[in-house]
Amino acid sequence: WAPTSSARGGDTGTSSMADSLRGRLLLWYAGILVAVIVMVGAAVCLVTWRSRLAGVDAELTSRAGAIASSVERGGDGAFDVELPADAMAYFQDARFRPYYAVWSAEGQLIDRSDPDYVAPGPPPPGARTNGEAREVVIAQRGLTVLVGRDISDVRAEVWGLAGTIAMVALGGVAASLAGAWWLAGRALAPVQRINETARRMADGDLSARIAIERTDRREPRNGGVTAMACRSPDMPRSGLERPASIRRDSDSPPLG
C-alpha cells in the first residue's frame, strides 16, 4: 500500500498545483486590469482638470481685460478705476471669492479689490495656481492686471469624477475576476481529469482512463475508406493485378 499513499500524495500535489496556477493567473490578470484602469482613470481626470482650468483662465483673462479698459489716468497723474456693473457683480460673488489688483507701468499699485491682498509687485504675465486659487496676469495699456478666483469647485468636480471612476472600476474588476475564475477553471479542467484518473489508478482501478470532452460532435471523415468503398468491383486492387480477361488473352497461344 505504500505506492497508493505516494500516489495520493502526488494527487494532492497535482491539485495544489492546479489551484496555485489558477491563483497566479488571476493575480496577473487582476494586476494588469487594475493598472490599466488606474492609468485610464488618471488620464481622464487629468484631461478634465486641464480643460476646467483652461475655462477658468479664459474667464479670468476676459475679466482682466475689462479691468484694464476701465482704468483711466487723469491730468494730474492719478488713476481712476470705474468697473462696469457686471464686473462689480462678478467680484462680489462669494462662491468663487474673486479678486483683482492693478499696477502701473512704474510698478505702483493702483487698485485692488481685497484690502488684505498683499502683492509685493506686479507679477509676470501668465496663468498660475496659487494655493487654492487660480490667477491670470496680463499686460495691457501699460498696466499689469492680476485677476484670481478660488478653484475649490473645480477640485471638487475632479475628485467627484475620480470617485465615480473608482466605483465603476471596482464593479468592473469584480465582474471580470468572476469571469476569469470561471475561464481558468475551464482551462484547468484537463488537469483535474488527469488528477482524478491518477487517483483511481492509485486505488487499484487499472482500467481507469482519462475522460476526453469533445467539442466537435461531427463524425470524423475517413476519406480513404470512403474512396475504397466507392471503388468499382471490376477495377484492379493494385497495379500488379490485371483483369482476368487480360490474363487469359496473354496465356493463349498466338494465332496463325
Secondary-structure blueprint of this entry?
Layout: H1 2-69, E1 71-73, E2 79-81, H2 85-91, E3 99-103, E4 109-112, E5 126-130, E6 133-140, E7 143-150, H3 152-187, H4 189-202, H5 223-229, H6 244-251
Antiparallel strand pairs: 1-2, 3-4, 3-7, 5-6, 6-7
Helix pairs in contact: 1-3, 1-4
Account of the protein in words:
This protein has 256 residues and is of the alpha+beta class. Helices cover 55% and strands 14% of the residues. The strands form two sheets. It has a five-stranded antiparallel β-sheet with strand order 4-3-7-6-5. Strands 1-2 form a two-stranded antiparallel sheet. A hairpin with a 2-residue loop joins strand 6 and strand 7. Helix 1 runs antiparallel to helix 3 and helix 1 packs antiparallel against helix 4. The longest helix has 68 residues. The protein starts with a helix and ends in a 5-residue tail after the last helix. 11% of the residues are buried.
- The Rg value, from CA coordinates, equals 44 Å
Helix amount = 40-55%
Write down the overall mean pLDDT: 76
Secondary structural class: alpha+beta
How many DSSP-defined strands?
Answer: 7
Tertiary shape: rod-shaped
Helix and strand run: HEEHEEEEEHHHH
> Ends: how far apart?
89 Å
Tally of contiguous helical segments: 6
Please outline the major beta sheet. Answer: 5 strands, antiparallel
Portion of residues in beta strands equals 5-15%
Order of the strands making up the biggest sheet: 4-3-7-6-5
Oligomer: single chain
Low-confidence segments: 1-11, 222-233
